[in-house]
UniProtKB/TrEMBL annotation:
Cross-referenced Gene3D superfamilies: 7,8-Dihydro-6-hydroxymethylpterin-pyrophosphokinase HPPK (3.30.70.560)
EC number: 2.7.6.3
Coiled coil: none
Domain called 7,8-dihydro-6-hydroxymethylpterin-pyrophosphokinase: residue spans: 88-99
Protein name: 2-amino-4-hydroxy-6-hydroxymethyldihydropteridine pyrophosphokinase
Natural source organism: Hyphomonas pacifica
Gene Ontology MF term list: 2-amino-4-hydroxy-6-hydroxymethyldihydropteridine diphosphokinase activity; ATP binding; kinase activity
Biological function: Catalyzes the transfer of pyrophosphate from adenosine triphosphate (ATP) to 6-hydroxymethyl-7,8-dihydropterin, an enzymatic step in folate biosynthesis pathway.
Family, per entry: Belongs to the HPPK family.
NCBIfam families the UniProt entry points to: folK
Keyword Isomerase found: no
């Protein structure tokens, strides 16, 4: 089995319920074993500003799926949660991205691992740093050091833990 870090985000509907459902759907997929789940972070939209704030989290999984099959599983979860094709970086019911798989580097038309913009997005690095602060990223920095650098460089990127959302998410997952 291989480890992988996934990033999930949504800014439409009942965001905590959608994230809880997405995590549960991923955990139920053959070939995926759920590991740690970060708390939820509220973040301002990235790319297209005129839309609701996002809730994001990261999770660790163990998987025996090949990267393309893991991507298919992520897309299946998005589809089950009603993801609609819209404008790039626009509102979404659910987004599930493969962020990192230690030892895996690939760049195809449909999948790039590590995620190509991971070091530019606080809404990815903040929850990821909670889970795997010592994992190395491109450029040689750790998740923790790259998170600290991005906090300074991109302080305008609002990304903060949302404890109320995290509690609601935890309660929904416990049911």
């Amino acid at each position: 089995m291989a480890e992988a870090a996934l990033g999930l985000g949504t800014n439409l509907g009942d965001r905590e319920a959608a994230l809880a459902r997405a995590v549960d759907l991923l955990a139920a997929m053959p070939g995926i074993t759920l590991g740690a789940v970060s708390r939820l972070y509220r973040s301002a939209p990235w790319g297209l500003a005129n839309q609701p704030d996002f809730l994001n989290l990261c999770l660790l999984i163990d998987t025996d799926l090949q990267p393309a099959d893991l991507l298919a599983a992520c897309k299946q979860v998005e589809e089950k949660l009603g993801r609609q094709a819209r404008v790039r970086w626009g509102p979404r019911e659910m987004d599930v991205d493969i962020l990192l798989m230690p030892g895996v580097e690939m760049d195809t038309e449909s999948l790039v691992i590590p995620h190509p913009r991971i070091t530019e997005r606080r809404f990815v690095l903040e929850p990821l740093s909670q889970l795997v602060p010592d994992w190395l990223l491109a450029g040689g920095g750790t998740v923790k050091s790259m998170t600290a650098a991005l906090r300074e460089k991109a302080a305008e990127q609002i990304c903060e833990p949302d404890e109320a959302a995290t509690r609601k998410f935890a309660l929904l997952r416990a049911c």
